Each structure stands twice: as C-alpha cells, then as structure tokens.
C-alpha cells in the first residue's frame, strides 16, 4: 500500500508530479530509491526540476489540416533560441499543432478552465447520474470520475497524445524536456474550423 507520506517524500526529492510519483511507487512496490531511479529513467524528475525555469524563446507555428478545413496557430516556448531552431523542437511544435487540430482542446491546463464552466459541467453530470437512478451517496463519486474525463477532453496537456494514446500530451512534452534539457511550455493557441458558428442555408 502506497502512503501519501511516501508520495510527498518522492515529490520533494525529485520534483516530479504527484501522479508520476504515485505511479513510480506502485511500479517499484514502495521502494523510494528505486522509484527515484524509475522517474529518472523516464526523464520525469529532470522535467519537473526544469518546470520553474523561464521560457522566453520559442516559435509560433501554423498547421493546416483537412484540405484547408481546420487551421491551428500555436506558440510553444523554450529557454534558448538555440533549442528553438532545432529540428526536434520544431517537430514537437508541429505535433502539438496537429494534436490541437485533431482533438480540439479548449484550454491548455485545467487551471485555465473558468469556475463557472466546471460548476455547470458538475451540475450536468450530477443530473445525468441521478437520472440514471444512482443512489445519492454514489453520485458525487461518479461526478468526480466523469469530471476527470471532461478535463481530459478539453485540456490540451491532459489529452491522450494522438501519435501514442498511452501517454498524455504533457507526458510527451516532459519526455522532450528530458532529452532537450530545457523547460518547454505551450503558451497559447488558436484553432479555426471552416464554417464554425455559421448556419448553413
């Protein structure tokens, strides 16, 4: 059984995310030293340590999909212009733009989702669960679970990566942070779809 104290200790020692720490401890059956090794191999410890560093360089890239039906503009930042010019970084930005075109996220992270949007979704999910005849005490748990799924759909970093759905976009970026050796962050994006919001006559 993995305790919260173990997760906390591993987080403090590696700077990796909570879920990554928990997974590492589960994989290594609670052995902290092995879990540190596991995170280092995955590059997650290094990525988290770089997460606080300022990313003032980077590129803006455009991606047009489906014969001009969908267009994406994305800005991805890194620490140095040297990295911004590398083929690996440019490919990463292109992959992120393709992800946005294909999966249509609304936000980059869940922190950006306005509270009223979250509350409205909770209300809808709660009503759905009650309409399914679920008992009141189970409903809240169901709402939490379905809310996670909602975030996974609308937040870019939480979406399954289109080229490898076993990992999230955030995991994929962390892998690049580990290999490139610099912090990388998605700053903003815009996605346009032909005819969006227009009524067909």
TrEMBL record:
GO terms for cellular component: cytoplasm. InterPro entries: EF-Ts_dimer_sf, Transl_elong_EFTs/EF1B, Transl_elong_EFTs/EF1B_dimer, Transl_elong_Ts_CS, UBA-like_sf. It is found in: Cytoplasm. SUPFAM superfamilies: Elongation factor Ts (EF-Ts), dimerisation domain, UBA-like. Keywords: Cytoplasm, Elongation factor, Protein biosynthesis. PANTHER family: ELONGATION FACTOR TS, ELONGATION FACTOR TS, MITOCHONDRIAL. Associates with the EF-Tu.GDP complex and induces the exchange of GDP to GTP. It remains bound to the aminoacyl-tRNA.EF-Tu.GTP complex up to the GTP hydrolysis stage on the ribosome. This is Elongation factor Ts. It comes from Koleobacter methoxysyntrophicus. The lineage of its organism: Bacteria, Bacillati, Bacillota, Clostridia, Koleobacterales.
């Amino acid at each position: 059984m993995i305790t919260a104290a173990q997760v906390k200790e591993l987080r403090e020692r590696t700077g990796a995310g909570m879920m990554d720490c928990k997974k590492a401890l589960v994989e290594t059956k609670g052995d902290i030293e092995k879990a540190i090794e596991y995170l280092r191999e995955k590059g997650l410890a290094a990525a988290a340590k770089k997460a606080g560093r300022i990313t003032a360089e980077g590129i803006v890239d455009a991606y047009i999909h489906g014969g001009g039906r969908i267009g994406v503009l994305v800005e991805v930042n890194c620490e140095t212009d040297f990295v911004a010019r590398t083929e690996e970084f440019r490919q990463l930005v292109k992959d992120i733009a393709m992800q946005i075109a294909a999966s249509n996220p609304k936000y980059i992270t869940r922190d950006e989702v306005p509270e009223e949007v979250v509350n409205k979704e909770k209300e809808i999910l709660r009503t759905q669960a009650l309409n399914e005849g679920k008992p009141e005490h189970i409903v809240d748990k169901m709402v939490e679970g379905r809310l996670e799924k909602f975030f996974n759909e609308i937040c870019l970093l939480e979406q399954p990566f289109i080229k490898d759905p076993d990992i999230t976009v955030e995991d994929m970026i962390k892998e690049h942070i580990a290999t490139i050796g610099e912090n990388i962050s998605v700053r903003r994006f815009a996605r346009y779809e032909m005819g969006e919001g227009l009524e067909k006559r």
